[in-house]
Amino acid sequence: MIAFLRDLRHAARALRGSLGFTAAAVATMAVGVAGTAAMFSIVNAVLLAPLPFPGSERLVADGGVRRDAPADLRGASLNELQDWREQSGALESFAAWRDWGMSRHDGAEGEPVYAAIVTPEIFQLLAVTPQLGRLFRPDEDRPGSNRVVVISDGYWRERFGGDRTIIGRTLVLERGPRAAYTIIGVLPPHVSELPSFEDVELFALSSIDPDAAIGRDIRNRRVLARVRRGAGIEEARADMTVIAARLARQYPDTNADWDIAVRPLIEQEVGPIGGALRALFLAVGFVLVIACANVAALQLARALVRRREFAVRQAIGGSRFDLVRALVAEGLLLSLAGGAAGVMLASWLVDAMLAAGPAIPRVRDVAVSVPVLGLALAACTAAGLAVALPASLLATRLDVVRGLKEESGSLPNVRAYRWRLGFVGAQIAMALALLTGAMLAAQTFMGILTLRPGFDPVNLAMVSVFTPLERKGAEVAAGYARAIDEIRGIPGVRSASAVSGGPLFGGPETMELRVDDGSGPTASGPARYFNVAPGYFRTLGATLRRGRDFTAQDRAGAPAVAIVNEAFARKYVTAPDPIGARVVSARGGGAVTIVGVAGDLLQEFRAAVPPQPEVYFPYAQSPRWATYLVVRADNLEAALPAIRERVRTADPSLRVGSPLLMAERIARSSRAPRFTLLLLGTFSGVAVLLSAIGVYGLVSYSVAQRTREVGVRVSLGAQSGHIIRLFVKSGLVAVAAGSLVGLAGTVAISRLMAAALPQMDELRPGAALFSWTLLVGVAALACYLPARRALRIDPMQALRVQ
User: Fold this and answer.
1) d(Cα 83, Cα 249) in Å, to the nearest integer?
2) Half-sphere exposure of residue 481: CA atoms within 13 angstroms, side-chain side
3) Which among 141, 146, 145, 156 is positioned nearest to 186, based on CA atoms?
């Protein structure tokens, strides 16, 4: 130990004497460690830290998945949830919930409240104890006794000042009929650490939803469950697979093509960002590996020119082990210095990433913590050994007598030359794989930037509206029709309509449909469905490809009609013209005739995801109590304040929510994929830059070491072109070997990125070819320039180079 400490002091003096080499090595290591520490800080907080509930490793998310789309977890209907409860043996408890916007009324104006409706056992499943009051009881989840709420800690403190007498107070809430709800409990703060509940201010019971049990195919409840003690997640999956098969036989119209997925709750809560973080962590891992390779190459080059020094030390009694230990001490000092600089840089990098990026779940307490420092220390120690051992073992393997005769910087042996070419090949392989990843990110990023939503978002707004629940059928449709007519009279409003849900702002439901176009066997499957008023597609700026729009004649009692999108027609209609095909819902009811085909609308910013089948029904034939008014105006800022007044004029009982500007919605929706791909491309670009610098430095150094050989060849009459080709060829041997490995890596990394990032586009051959051409060009230039410089030296002077 004392000897190693002495080696560290000697190493520090030696590194101070080579400040250029030391600065380059420390800076390179700092870049690798900073990226790794920053990404691990985020990954640790988001993916690795357990959820703040007892036994959180046994919490899972369940949901129905189509067999043709197993990655898309749809949730469950309340009917299915009851079947799962009764039939599952591996899962001991279930609960379900969904988002439920409400408004709170202290006076005439309503205040929006972000709520969720839940089945009563949800907090027992999460093992939550209220800090005040009590939780829901099972007997309360029914009409007549379900006007009770539990509020979050944040809402309690912000809106009620932490008043501990809050239990028993009533809140006047509205979604549909306005009613008084009694506060029965206040949740502890850690419930909001579950990403899905982060913004939820109050929880109500599921039975207040008038459409709670509308059908088995309305899978709009997100389901939580807890795995039974002694059972594992694989056993739970097998159990639910058996249940799915049983339900498919029992209910073929709604469950025939559905399986049940079981996923760890933390994986489901983090969502697609988890895959993005894993891909980013992989990218920065490559950055660290390449940084280590660069420093190893630098240290190898430095060690090789010190062989005479090593020979002298061995001649006066030093052992090879002493030399190796001294070089390892230098490597550890370099890596630890780079690591310290990298950790300091990581804190800034974490803040910059979180400030520039979208909202990432579970990042409230992200910091360069003890686990991160431990990882950084381990990485630096491993990196120090990795960069020092190859150089020390190779540079100290020498003949002492021959080494004493050499001058510093003399021609290295063939083994050393091959080692350097091996480093070149390894860096080429890693750089090619990473550059391919960067190209993938770039082409996907450009694809997202150029995505066309299928409608015109400029000067377009959506406004949520609710009608009293006691209204039914034609009365609901008439109220919305009057509101639309009033809004059309606002100066500057070009058009207005209504829809139950829409592109990029949610609201769609899914139903099982059967299609008969008269040309063969009927087709069946799921489709998103919407209810729309006449003029919806014109207001949205969408295109009707075939047929007609809805009109005032498509009212209750008229022939039932529908409009489908192009994806629906491609998937379910085999006849040349979809117009006239008949659609039947699995819920029953009469057939509906297709009268129009609309263009596909973008539902989410994922360049690689094709449009899904959608069907639109006239509002007057299937009115719903909640809707969105769609308004296009020349000046939205001037028109929006008048919308609320015009709706009240049309029908004072209608309740109007906050407007949503579609241009802003698109900007928010695209922020997450843009940020992920930009960050991935940036890390990959940094890695490629490090690789290119390392490849150039290694190859050019290797060629420069053969200056004496150039003099010999020139003096014997060799032509300059022949010498340049010889040197470029010898350098490209390593490039070719590295390229073969790297091309295999490009396939692996493209598949990994596609699995981790759902929005990732497929790799195009041009991207891989460009990556390979760029790196081969760098390596060829690194071979050519030093050879060219050597040719300019006088042959006699070159022959004197030792």
Assistant:
1) 13
2) 16
3) 156
Residues in CB range of 278: below 8 A, 6 or more apart: 43, 47, 756
Distance of alpha carbon 712 from alpha carbon 723, whole angstroms: 11
Nearest 10 degrees: Cα torsion 640, 642, 643, 646: 180
CA gap 74, 267 in Å, rounded: 15
- At position 45, the amino acid (one-letter code) is A
Distance, in Å, from the CA atom of 248 to the CA atom of 675, rounded to the nearest integer, reads: 41
With tokens 């939550």, the residue in question is 128
**Exposure of 160 by Cβ count < 10 A (0-12 exposed, 13-18 middle, 19+ buried)?**
middle
Residues 241 and 259 sit within 8 Å (Cβ to Cβ) = yes
Q: Where do the H-state alpha helices sit in 508-609?
A: 536-540, 566-572
Neighbours of 140 (CB within 10 A): 16
DSSP secondary structure letters along 148-173: EEEE-HHHHHHHHTT-TT-TT-EEEE
For the residues 724-752, what does the mean pLDDT come to?
Answer: 69
The 3-state secondary structure of 320-366 reads HHHHHHHHHHHHHHHHHHHHHHHHHHHHHHHHHHHHHCCCCCCCCCC
- Cα-based torsion angle of the residue sequence 178, 184, 186, 187 in order, rounded to the nearest 10 degrees: -100
Alpha carbon distances (Å) from 648 to 179, 308, 627, 629? 20, 93, 15, 14
DSSP category for residue 67? T
Structure tokens given for 199: 């913004």
**C-alpha 172: how far from chain center:** 39
Tell me the pLDDT tens digit for each residue of 19-62: 766 777 777 778 778 877 887 787 777 777 888 899 888 999 98
Rounded distance, CA 479 to CA 483, Å?
6
Angle between helices 720-756 and 765-792 (to 10 degrees): 150
Q: At what angle do helices 662-704 and 720-756 cross, to 10 degrees?
A: 150
Question: Residue 238: its pLDDT value, please?
Answer: 92
- Average pLDDT of every residue of the chain: 77
Q: How many CB atoms lie within 10 A of CB 668?
A: 12
What 349-352 contacts at long range (C-beta under 8 Å, 24+ apart), as own/partner pairs, is 349/34, 349/35, 349/38, 350/38, 350/41, 350/42
**Cβ atoms of 795 and 715 closer than 8 Å:** yes
What is residue 408's three-state secondary structure?
Answer: coil
| Percentage of residues in the chain having pLDDT higher than 70 | 67
Q: Which tens digit of pLDDT belongs to each residue from 94-108?
A: 999 988 878 788 765
**Three-state DSSP state, 689:** helix
Q: CA 741, 689, 394, 26: dihedral to nearest 10 degrees?
A: -140
Q: Which residues contact 67 (CB under 8 A, 6 or more apart)?
A: 257, 258, 259
Please give the DSSP secondary-structure letter assigned to residue 417: H
At 59 the pLDDT is 93
**Alpha carbons 272 and 466: distance in angstroms, whole number:** 32
d(CA 283, CA 287): 6
Question: String of b and e for 715-750 (b: at least 16 CB within 10 Å)?
Answer: eeeeeeeebbebbbebbbebbebbbeebbebbeebb
Q: What tokens were used for 678?
A: 């930009």
Prediction pTM value: 0.66
Widest Cα–Cα separation across the chain: 107
Asked if 532 and 616 count as a contact pair (C-beta separation under 8 A), the reply is: yes
β-pairing verdict for 614-618 and 523-532: parallel
Phi, psi of 698, rounded to the nearest 5 degrees: -65, -50
pLDDT reported for residue 408:
43
Q: Cα(163)–Cα(151) distance, rounded to whole angstroms?
A: 12
* Residue of 601, 574, 593 lying closest to 518 (CA atoms): 574
Tokens representing 618 are 């006239």
